[in-house]
Amino acid sequence: MSNILTIENLNVTYRTLAGRRHVLQDVSLSLASGQIRAIVGESGCGKSTLVNTIISLLPDNAEIESGSIMIDGRETVGLTGERLRKMRLEKLGVVFQDPFSALDPSYTIEKQILESIRISRKVSMKDVEMEIRELLRSCGLRNPEEILKKYPHELSGGQQQRIMIAMALLNKPSLLIADEPTTALDVTVQKEILRLLKSLAKKNDLAVLFVTHSLDVAAEIADRIAVFYGGRVVEEGRVEEIFSFPLHPYTQALLKTIPSIEYGKNERKLMPIEGELFSFLNEEEGCCFAPRCPYASERCFKESPKYRESHGHGFACMLEEVL
Ligand SMILES: Nc1ncnc2c1ncn2[C@@H]1O[C@H](COP(=O)(O)OP(=O)(O)OP(=O)(O)O)[C@@H](O)[C@H]1O
Ligand code: SF4
Ligand SMILES: [Mg+2]
């Protein structure tokens, strides 16, 4: 399997009035075709910053301080203008959390899809009619003819997200990035969308980077999970390893906070972990999780733990024994 995405030692900061916020810290990740990797972490840990860095949509006050992002063998940090546009069009598909705000309320779905295609190819609806219908069907929309004539507000949240997924796949990308794509949907629809993404990834040999704050959602869709804390990958491994043998105290705490399945609702929710969230201001020495870690020693406040890896399961903690 070839790597579609390889991120190495990525550091990203935001300039703010209160100072510089070092939000992505030495992030390294890789993703092969056909693989689905979930990025899991609490709100504000840097998940969307990572996504926006990969798709080159960082706000003006952000800066990539160092690091590399290779997409399909090509360095993308530093790409600008036509080269960047071409890379985005050819290689990337992106699905965001809220499909309704991503769609234009004043145009029919047909018009919006056609406009998206026209950005890369000069075509008429007649040329691509079959292709679009086939794509909508493959995204679980059974009546593409009807759907194409509708305006976004005439569709359900699930149908809108299926449209967004279809639009993300229009140019047959090698990498699909989904930032919390099911958070705005109810549980049943969420499950259907997860199933759809999984089958599309398999069918099209797509690499999928799936961002979520829920370990349960991650377990349902991904092969591997990267646990994020304070803008760093603190643990990474296969889903089964993360669930049955979590090595980092933060992952352990996240798993403990998942209560048993709520009655009448096939969903489990993350409960807050004690202690304050990481702020990214006033960069301090030591482990980013130390202020909330039940096992923190004096050394943890002075030294940054090195990332250790064994048999494809890695974590950043200096405890000698896993507790
Ligand atoms: N443009 C910006 N300027 C300054 N700080 C920012 C900016 N965008 C995000 N941040 C800060 O960077 C940190 C990471 O934000 P980010 O949106 O990447 O987190 P997230 O994990 O996606 O959160 P959520 O789960 O709520 O979507 C947060 O502390 C956030 O306040
Ligand atoms: S390095 Fe120390 S503070 Fe950090 S997670 Fe490990 S034990 Fe906790
Ligand atoms: Mg986010």
Brief digest:
This protein has 323 residues and is α/β, with parallel strands linked by helices.
Percent of residues in beta strands: 25-35%
Total strand segments: 12
Average pLDDT reading: 90
Share in helix: 25-40%
Briefly note the CATH topology name of the domain at 3-104 and 174-189 and 201-284.
Answer: Rossmann fold
Q: Which sequence of SSEs, written as H and E, runs from N to C?
A: EEEHEEHEHHHHHEHEHEEHHEE
The name of the CATH superfamily of the domain at 3-104 and 174-189 and 201-284 reads P-loop containing nucleotide triphosphate hydrolases
CATH architecture identity of the domain at 3-104 and 174-189 and 201-284:
3-Layer(aba) Sandwich
Overall body shape: globular
Ligand names: adenosine-5'-triphosphate, iron/sulfur cluster, magnesium ion
Q: Total helix count?
A: 11
Overall structural class, as computed from helix and strand content, comes to alpha/beta
Protein described:
It is a single chain. The chain has 323 residues and is α/β, with parallel strands linked by helices. The chain is 32% helix and 25% strand. The strands form two sheets. Strands 6-7-8-3-9-10-12-11 form an eight-stranded mixed beta sheet, with helices on both faces. A hairpin with a 2-residue loop joins strand 4 (62-71) and strand 5 (74-75). The longest helix has 18 residues, at 187-204. It is globular and about 70 Å long. The two termini are 34 Å apart. The model is unreliable at 260-268 (pLDDT under 50). Bound molecules: adenosine-5'-triphosphate, iron/sulfur cluster and magnesium ion. Adenosine-5'-triphosphate is lined by residues 14, 16, 21, 23, 41, 43-49, 59, 61, 213, 280.
